[in-house]
## 1
Amino acid sequence: MFTLPLDVLLVFMVASPVVGRVASKRGYRKVQGIYALLSLFAVAYFLYGLYNEVAEYNIVLIVGQLPFKPPLEACLQIDMFGVFMAFLYVIIGLFAIAYSIKFMECESGLSEYYTLVLGMIAGMTGIVFSGDFFTLFVFWELMCLTSYALVSFRKHKWEPIEAGFKYIIMSAAGSATILLSMSFLYGMTGTLNFAALSSRLTNPVSDGWLYMTLVLVIVGFGIKTAIVPFHTWLPDAHSAAPSPISAMLSGVMVQTGACALIRVLLLVFGSVQPAWQMTLVFLAVFTMFGGNFMALLQNDIKRLLAFSTIAHMGYILFGFAIVSHQGLTASLFHIMNHAIMKTLLFLCAGGFIYRTGTQDLRKLEGIRGAMPVTSILLAVGAVAIAAVPPLGGFWSEWMIVSAGIEAGMLLFSVLMVLNMLLSITYYLRLVYTINLKEPTSISEKATEAPVLLLIPVLILALLCIFIGIYPGPFVAWAQKAAEAILGM
Amino acid sequence: MIPLSYYVWCAVALYLIGMYCLVSKRNMIKLVMGLEILVNAAHLNFIAFSAYRRAGFIDPFGHSIVIMSIVLTGCVTALALTIVTYAYKHYQTLDVRKLRRLKW
């Protein structure tokens, strides 16, 4: 029906509640998590097959069996960019699920939980695979729906419910805005296929409808991407969700919005590129400053990380807005680095929350004495994300800045470097509070996180260091993905 | 026959009404209704465009999109109303301004 990895993912997702139900009736509660983990391994295997196919033919086109002619049909168009992002989703999903097996042990409704996580991964994969706007929208809604449910998963507490309501109202309004922009594109051209849209909108239409559609697209995707005037849902939703879910939301879901945005802008609005390029650059700079300044004020560890995600979305958007091969490569590489580093940080924060039950940094002061491994891994992640040279974050942020300078955006590149320096202050504050301050009564009583929680975090930290000292193949892969977006 | 632009402006007006509803209303259920109005603005647009593409011919593509989108919106609304019921259990009110325990 769809392509093999996506099919497998959807089948496993639909079968997951049945497996979970049977397993929990017999008393094997961990089976559900292990089942989800194995299904993701299977997806990764099939995705590797797809990677080989794409490497050989450049683009794999899968057309649906509806009785329409090609420009009307729903289709999937898989290129290197799609495969790159899909691998990222599967890898981050693997770590999140491996972490959830222990972390979510005591929650009820676990079979629904794993179903929703698999559904979210399927939705994101579908978004980057889709070849027309309508398929993108359906998978977009799948991703949104599952993430709403996951944010308010702990429904017996007030915080997830309140954050979930805020999130659902803002994000659903964004989806409706995307739908309205789709309707205008359909009215102007009679199709929603990306290839057909780009060929039919080549001569810039002088009337205002095209610009209005452009604004609607930027606002609609911008809400999910947490561009600064629309970012207010993000810190609430990320701090209220369970830690593995925060890691997935922050590591890959927000970036999916940016990827969909840049794909639509490049393919559909290529004829009015100067109009949206500068808008995007300004929004990116606002997003950086907004995220970094707000992060300075936070006392909640997950809220601090959520605001740092907003700042990093600014960097990624800036790289995308440069629209050169170099800028896109840098941004995609940064998406990869950021996903790994942010997942590492959120999972470490999850370890603290698992043992102490609090997210307040003032109560977690000096917890290193009690939880040395988690604290040191958190420090590795924080140093990497603060762009300290030998680690992953430095290379990608440096690449974005140098791409900006090369494209003649000196002022904005300088502003980005300023932001990077600003962000070091709160990452160092995080490391300092956790590692060097005098322990409080809560942090003295804590014990080291269980081994099952430490293993995924340790692997992530090693991966983070590995990318830092050996970035070559990853950059080459990001380069191929960027070529695929630009249609080179 | 009514010109196409009437429908389009009507859709834009519906969108603005929905946004106004989201910004100004206090009742959580009214906010969910606001979402529904927003989506229906887009649906109206799709139906109008599919009818006016060619004289005497109705494009089925627009209709299939609207049907799929109605299903998706139904899911979102159901989930939103579920969250509203839980919020009512926690706060004993439907006033969204009472949900102010989270900071910005």
Note: Chain B touches chain A at residues 8, 11, 15, 18-19, 22, 28, 31-32, 35, 38-39, 41-43, 45-46, 48-50, 53, 59-62, 64-65, 68-69, 72, 75-76, 79-80, 83-84, 86-87, 90-91, 96, 99, 101-102, 104 (CB under 8 Å).
## 2
Amino acid sequence: MAGPMEQFKIEKEADLFEIAGQTVSWTNSSFWMVVSVVLIIGFFVLTMRGKLIPGRMQSMGELSYEFIANMVRDTVGPEAMRFMPYVFAIFFFILFANLIGMNPYAFTTTSHLAVTAALAIFTILIVMVAGIVKNGLGWFKIFAPSGLPLPMYIIIIPIEIISFLSRPVTLAVRLFANMVAGHVLLKLFAIFAAFLLAKGGITSVGVILPVVGTLGIVALEFLVAALQAFVFAILTCVYLNDVYHVGHH
Amino acid sequence: MEEAARYIGAGLAGTALIGAGVGIGSIFSKYLEGALRNPSAAASQQTNLLLGFALCEATGLFGFVLAMIILFV
């Protein structure tokens, strides 16, 4: 029987080209990434009929726009609306990738640290570059909060720098760990059910327990899939705060 | 010997979930406490509730993933 970690195996399907001795290949991970992007584009193509009185489909599109726009406005402020497309894209990519991963036989692209780390590093680079472009070198004041006695800065500045540098790490590992843990748990319960059934006799009556457990975990996993996309998006907004509010940190 | 040590290590890594469980319980209990005292402010804090829940759960899951890596990789 397949172990619980086998569902995360990346299979190479074709070699594309080479860069600096490394082969770039087309894998099942890239296939499911393309599937989620196509689904997102399809969703918004279906919902973008610009009628004055929105129908059902159009209100879905408008609700999702309003949701992210309000998130950016509430956590950072109206001046950050130029970053709203980025937050929007990252939220929907993670949401669709997580939800697609919940389907049987589908591959969860966000269950790989490489994918989530790329998203997290991109987020933190945007914060750094936009902060330096907007505030110049004054942006580095976020590492030194104002209004402290002078000796405190010896301790505070290293702490602030470490906490800033740990942001991409926790951002990436949080999403990755949630997806891996949920799928492993699902697989473990399913394996246990199959194991009980294979035993036969009176033990196979007990199969009802892991099946009910699996049902509960599936429901929890759908919640976690949406929640983690939301958390990633809102933490991106919180980090974008550092671009606009350098002074009061 | 090495096999046994691996299982012990995985079990120890799983204890990280104790803290996460306590934390999630504390978040929801405090939220309910506050929501019952001031129900009109409860709806506006649901975002923070879910954010706290997700942040708290993640710390325990780091330990769980570590246990899985020790066991299966």
Note: The longest helix of chain B spans residues 46-72.
## 3
Amino acid sequence: MSLFRRQASSKANGKLTRLFFASDFHGSQRIFRKFVNAAKHYEADVLVMGGDVVGKLAIPVIREGNGRFRAHLMGKTERLEGQDDLKGFEERLGTLGFYSKIMDADEYDEIRSDTAAVDRLFHDLARERLALWIELAETRLAGTGVRWFVMGGNDDDPEVLELLKDVNTESMVFCEGKEVAIDDHHTMISVGFSNRTPWKTPREIDDNDLGTMIEELADKVADTEHAIFNLHVPPVDSTLDTCPMLDWNTDPPTQIVKAGQVVLHGAGSEAVRRAIETHQPLLSLHGHIHESGGVVKIGRTTAVNPGSEYGEGVLRGCLLTLAKDEIKSYQLTAG
Amino acid sequence: MAVAAAKPEVFTRKSSGLVRVMSPYSAFIYNILTMGLIFPWTYLWAPGALPGGRLVWGILLAMIFEIPIALAYVWLSTALPRSGGDYVFQSRVFGGGIGFSIVMSGFVIWILQWVALSGWLLSYLGFASLFLGLGGTMGNPTLTSIGVWFTTPWGIIIVSILNAFLAMLLLVSGFKNYVKFQYVMWYATLLSFGLMLYLFFSATPEIFAQKLNDFVVASGGVPNFYQTGIDAAKAANIDLNPSFSLLATLLVAPIAWTSLQWATYSAQQNGEIKGARSFQNQLIIIIGSLIVTGLLLAALAAALEHAIGTEFLYVAGAGYWAALDAGKFNGVFLWPNIIAMALAGSPIIVVLISLGYILNAFQIVNNCYIGMTRVMVAMSLDRLLPEWVSRVSDKFHTPVNAHIAYFLASIPVILVYNLWGQWTALTLGVTFACGYVFVITALAGALMPYRAKALYDASPGAVYKLGNIPLVTIFGLIGAAVGAVMVLMFMFYSALGLTSVLAYQVVFGVLAVSIIWYFLAKMIQRSRGINVEYAFKEIPPE
């Protein structure tokens, strides 16, 4: 009955590494808590968190006196009566990846008229949330032997990512821009920048420059055959990057419609595809395009984009079992 | 760079926010086309098998019965706006075992019968009616005999296989090509439907009798067809003026449900619908399309009875249900489109009506592929179907293998449906099987607030309650109960065709195969170090 023999014995002998990868949390509290708990839930040895960790929206919760508040969410003004309502509302925002700050109407008017103040508010709230995440992860993962690797994405402000670079904890490794060891056999390089997007996000560059950035890192890898390329953007035209084509001349960008239908295209990076085709790493990990989750083969490389449903509170991920020379198994998850 | 929004009271920052492909309007159209304005069974099956049943009321009852089920789908779709629909909903709330077994049996396997049925619709109601209509309106018996060929088993088989093959090619070439073509199908179907309504409402039984007689003679048939049919039905002891029967009217509803149960099919594509998380959008897409289609079908029933009279409606029904030869025209049942063609007497109208039927039938086979290949890909990614099923073609960016597999699997079903007489008795088997999928999903909606609390709490529908009871629980329970009654009717009333030993063997055999498949797949994957439960089980968010 070798067909049904479990592989647990191999794992016990230290031959296999279980790696859990997920990306594009966009500030969602629920998703991050699930991500940390995924180590135990999936019996993973290594957690890798792709980029785009920062949220997109901050909701001012405005004091109206007598313990009442108002806040605007999803097109509706919510009236909050007391602390219980407020707590429930903040939990909902946390799931959606939104930040919140309680303020008076005057303070809100003052901030909204000052772009720099809005920037500062975002940076403060994002750093505050990341600090909470790091603390939570350390509490749960320190002493377990599980490490979580994290990098930024194109949506993440460099000022916020500075916080991650300075962290010195047992469990967390900020892995962007360097080669890190995943286990005895595999190393990983990480690049969180993207090629240009119509959204003009904080960390996007020309595709050629992205290629140069990846090549500089890849050149330092002694053994690309056992390497993992953790590149936020998926390779172009890989089906991990399919999304509607957008008009770059409108703000916000709008979808291009031809003959009565939305035009789809591959929004990935040519440089990323070139790097994978040239170096043929064992595995490449991607995010960025939330709606195009999947796994494809590019030559010998297994390329993964688990997709993202952070707004629904669903942690999309990929659980991989790595042997020295091969990927023994992979599984897309929705936890 | 962050910016302050003038209104509403939020702060936003520059970040990517990609959009979905299908507009809510397209999804609304998709549902109406899926419900099939052309499905003909209610109009002949019900009068034939259920004397005393009121067609219009039966259709409206089916629409009303479907509303709570559809509402449960609205809640589920806004909570889980992902492609995969029922499979995702059920596996999220009940776990992979139930989700896979129910959807694999009730949908993936049984909808192969819809591939066969759409081929039958295309051949019988599309091409056969086109040539019969042209033969009758142009006085050309050769065209009539071509039309008759399309009603023969091999005529239907050839058309069905080509129908499935062309749909596969269209969808493999890219979903966007289908969406482009959908508008053509939509307007052709509407035109065809509108013409029939006009012809029926503007006719009287007397006018119809004359025009039908002329039409039959021009096709090479015998004179005085109308009166001959009535006389033959009376001679066969068929009551042409039965008194009202509440039970018969209630039993019309499960037949009409063949169409209206598909109001929720857009849920399979939630991942591609813009604003799928919006409650308002889902109400318009699902409930809106249900009500519009229900009212249109009821209107067609009223118009048909207005045009041909109650007596002849029972003659046409006897042609279908009691094999009354005089209730058939050249061996073809008197479907609403044939009757409309006889009333029109114009080859142009014949072509326009037929085009709607041809394109709506083709759209239905497309729907089978669109919905089921997505479910199959989701099952494959969950490691319950082989990995090659979910492989996406580099060239076409579509799951080509899933399409090919579904096409190949449909061929034996097409053959058995058209060559084995007993199998046609299982025509509504697919309504029964899909019915139990919808019932379990409605139940999943009812239990979502309790079994998937975190998911429910994060959904926009969580704010709607009656006292402390979530509205989705109330609608889901009512929907599941009503749906279960309709499903059970199939098994206990011979008029609905699923009371034979063969029917029980097929229905429960398919379910058993799916359950066994799940446990085998789970065991095999475990031997490879993969726990398939990880695909469904929520990680504690605490």
Note: Residues 1-6, 15-20 of chain B have pLDDT under 50 and may be disordered.
## 4
Amino acid sequence: MTTVIQTRDLVKTYGRVRALDGLDLSVSAGEVHGFLGPNGAGKSTTIRILLGLARATGGEATVFGEDPWRRAHELHRRIAYVPGDVSLWPNFTGGEAIDLIARLRGDGKDKEAYLERKQRLIAAFEFDPRKKGRTYSKGNRQKVALISAFATPAELYLLDEPTSGLDPLMEQVFNREVARVAEQGATVLLSSHILSEVEQLCNRVTIIRAGRMAETGTLADLRHLTRTEVAFSTQGQDPGVLTGVPGANDVRIDNGRVSFTIDSDRVTAVLPELARLEVTGLTIKPPSLEELFLRDYGDELAPAGTRGSREVRS
Amino acid sequence: MNELLVLLRQRRRRDRFQLAVWIISIGLLTYASTASVAGTYGDEAGRTQILQLAVATRTVLVFRGTPNGPSLGAFVFFELFSWLAVMVGLMSSFLAVRHSRADEELGRAELVASTPAGRILPTVATVVHGLLANVVVGVLVALALIANGLDAAGSFVFGAAVTAVGATCLAFGLFVAQLFRTSRGANGAGVAFVIGAYIMRGIGDAAGTPSDDLLHVTPAWPSWISPIGWGQATGAYVRNDLRPLLLAVVFSAVLVAVVFGLQSVRDQGASLIPGRPGRANAGPLLSSSVGLAWRLNSTVIASWAVGGAVGGLLATSLSSLVDEVGSEAPDVAKVLQGSLGGAASLEQALMATVFGIVGVLACCCVVQIGIRARQEEAHGTAETVLTTPVPRIRWLADYWLVGVLATLIVLACAALAGLVGVGRAADPDALATELVETAIAQIPVALVFLGLTLLVFAYLPRATIPLAWSLVGFLAMLGIFGPLFGAPKWLVNVSPFTHAPVPVGDSVDWTGGLWMIGIGLVTAALAVASMRRRELVSGG
């Protein structure tokens, strides 16, 4: 499989701030790749470098095998981009902005197909294209970028928190469009911190923290890193027997329920034991990215992990 | 009351450098120019001669003031006041817009309005802040004059007149900030008001009635619709009459009352012109980045082109006036001709002077176009364009191209409007040729400022707006008024406006123009080439 995006030891500094600190990222053709990380982890900086809007301080980044800074405008013919915070020309209508962006991207060859896609998207996103840019809310400005991105075909979609400001209904429309372009073989890099969105859309995920890659892999790979949570009713159970369940961790009993966690690949091994105990109200919750995320960042949620201490660790 | 103090402190802190630079420059310029005038025109006989010459030709008065006798104080007032008034007017107008519409446009005002400070108090704070700044300027001006040995009473009247003009422009700035939706629009209207006030009083002085001894002029009515005219009417050092300043007080008070009235009825962020649904699809112009750059600047270009046309009309109509003077008082014409520049005819010299101002307009226009590039960058819309297959270099080059087009349009409008007035001249063909030549002669200086603005944008992006405006303002003052105040020759020569080619006799020396075209092209090329390495710099 060919690699579309490749960064090696990517570094970007703004003055004394290290926004990226040796990031490795690899996205293969045809993949919908989730790009996760807390605010300030360097997701947007990475995408700006991949777009040639910012220049890497160190390391290497290639898009379609080319240097995104030097070959920016050639690459842009193949890329569609949706930023997390869209700025519009205050005195242009939304429709004008959509057309302008699409034309600059070169829709000229197939006007009718473009118009048809545009109309379909405007209807799907329930967007009013006749209002002036300054009057749109954040969600509506977001729609301008989404409509112009999906109205022109691209080989690579760089989406930087594209659904911020959209309501859940519109998120569904967005998911459909991403699925559509993925089906047509496009590559998508989706930066987000909405985990359900990533779980629903992405085949592979990279999690970054403090400008470095923390985890990468398929969702299945990552799920192995976390434990499955098993819980059942205490009714008629002797808590003592639970110690007999092999591999059970963090056993807790509260509100009339027993819960414990177990390595995900050992779930089937404990099922006979649970059957023997004839447990009731059994729930088995597969690991979610949420937990992975919290596990990775939990230590940072504590006393706002200072930059200094991070640097000591790295 | 507490909130008002907080808002005032915030304004003072935000303006601490910008306002300090304005106030100190105005104070220092007053001091230096007064010293220079006193040194150059030391004796009353010399001043009498100059005044008589000026009054006899009258058109010269457009660029000076109302003559009011040969005493040193009155002479300084005559030479300096209108010019200081323009500076303080610009300072106040920018201040007003900065703290009203600009804040509102960027959503900062909303943040403040949601606190107990509310919607109205910030405007009160801006009025107080602006008035305080103007009082400081007035006192500094008075002190600078007294330090040059002028009498205290007259100096304070002079200072009060400066403060009054500032207050008027402050009020007008706040007023247009209510009307316009963008700070750019409001600032443009504010600048137009100041320039308009200057021109109206200039016409008033030029069309005024001279006394028999040719030492005094009673301005015609246009002076009375100009705040700068009201300031001049105080007759500092001679009449010391503060009553005309009442007009400024009343005018400002009424405008401020209107501002509060408008502010209390309109929504935050809205303007008085209601929005209506626009087009759903883009027109053919919005298909390329150069089309976009053109569309973003077309209003600006149209406004400055109108200014250029007015300038062109003024040039030829003043020329025919000079013709009259020439035939009525040939001696005066001779002397004037000599003092204005050797072999150049009076008409040529006058044309060069008026078109010098048109050249400044063209420069303001290209500066605004360069600034638009910066605003696009700061606002984030440049990023949108640059994530499409538009090369970075091409993006900035398009602004340069639009700037060149704008220069040609503004000057062409001036020349065409001027040609309308040519018919009445004694030798229409010659005048028409001169007119076109003089208009073409302004192209190089505009190219220099276009290049300079883009260069500032390339290397000091965050400073683009203040620095580009200051450069054009300072260098224009230096080029046009520098010689009047006896600024050292090397300093005057720094200003590109000094080097605009001037038709002398039948020939034009294009050397300066060719140099400036070179400088303009090199600076623009450096700026555009910098985009190869330059990252986008976001707002702030």
Note: Chain B has 21 helices and four strands.
